[in-house]
Amino acid sequence: MRKSHKEELFSAAFRLFILHGYDGVSFSDIEKATGMSRGAIFHYVNTKQDLFRQVVEMFVINKQSIDMKIKYGKDPSLRDFIGAYTQGVKRTMKEVRQIIGEDVSLAAGSRAYLNIIQQVATLVPDLFKLYQQCMDREQQVWQQVITRAIERKEIQPEIDVELLAQTFIALFYGRAYRDSLSTGLDADLLKRQMLQLYEVITFKNKAQIHGMSEDNYTEKIQLQEIDLLVSEDRVRDINVLLEDLTIMRGAEFIRQLKEITNHPSFYLIKDETGIYITGGEKGEDYDNLLNAARKAVEHGYRVFILPNPKGFRTADYIFERKGVFKMFDLKTILGKASAGTRLKESIGQTNHVILNLATNYDPRMLAKDVRDYFEANKQAREVLIMKGNRQLSVSRRFVEGKDYIKMFIKRFLK
Questions:
Q1: Spatial separation of the C-alpha atoms in residues 158 and 219, rounded to whole Å
Q2: What is the pLDDT of residues 254-283, one digit of tens each?
Q3: 3-state secondary structure string, 59-78?
């Protein structure tokens, strides 16, 4: 069915506000995107702020309303409600993606969507109150479902209903924020995490922990004590440790790198020195990873080849030398004009990149590619260039220094 002029206007405006923010959109932009005249636009709205308000109410407030977002039967079990909730999240993401356009990455769209909500708080405070009311309603629905789950003995009776409802909601919003920094929200992973929490709090699980039948189980232990009993002495999954890195900075980030390199899943590769790997399948890039790792070992590094988890992007290595830990992404350069593109692919994974040159590369062009990468990624710290047995470490300070191109070529050809 063909959209009405109002729907076309609001869809186009939403895409523009998502991509460029409120201040980055003009009526001229809207006219160009819709093909509508200024007068035709004013038939539906009075000002740009009025347009922003109506668009946000339609595509953010209404779509985030739990009564609109999810479909569930009368008096659902908590497990069924979790399934309906995550399915609703997935459906809403699909609808929003269709409006924004497939040319915008899921991660970029997620970040922009969260940014729109933040702009609402500043630009339209009364509409933000409506958004907060939607959040209060979501809390209320979760509490109702959890209360019924306790009444039917689906989950443990001593649970703090309000706190558990907040925890489920925080799982969604925390997952949405963290995934917006990498690949975009993974609704399937969100479902698995919610169901994992569900399994911990079920009545059956708690009875089993204490070696009792469900009927005879009456002992009252706080929820956090159960979590302690379930997780005691368990080594944290290395993929979880890697995923946590996406929100860490500074000293906390370095401590996490150290914890990862001490993980018991790492073992020394047979017939290699100083190169460690975890179990599992070896990817198609394994030979390239191993080749670059050998070069790093020659320069005094211990190298940990990282696994490639599903659901989020991570780097390829952790390097350690003299107690200093760094996380690197590997880019092997085969073509004579591909370094710039490959460098930019690493943005969002790590701020240290290895360029393993498997071809002759014009040093002036390479210097410019590296400079462009530092300009595009304000968080970039280092590009480590490997050619044969030689290495050249390029820092931001070096790139921004005097006569950079000249000095780069001199060091590269040395």
A1: 10
A2: 888 888 888 888 888 888 888 998 876 566
A3: HHHHHHCHHHHCCCCCCCCH
DSSP 58: I
**How many other CB atoms are found less than 10 A from the CB of residue 326?**
19
Q: What DSSP character marks residue 148?
A: H
CB 179 within 8 A of CB 107: yes
Query: Would you call 355 helix, strand, or coil by DSSP?
Result: strand
What are 120's two structure tokens? 């609402």
- Residue 379 sits at the vertex; the CA angle it makes with 103 and 275, to the nearest 5 degrees, is 100
Q: What is the pLDDT of residues 125-182, one digit of tens each?
A: 888 888 888 888 889 999 999 999 999 888 888 889 999 999 999 998 888 877 777 7
Pairing of strands 324-333, 352-357: parallel
First to last CA, the chain: 66
Q: The tokens of 168 are what?
A: 């489920």
Q: Is the whole model's pTM more than 0.70, yes or no?
A: no
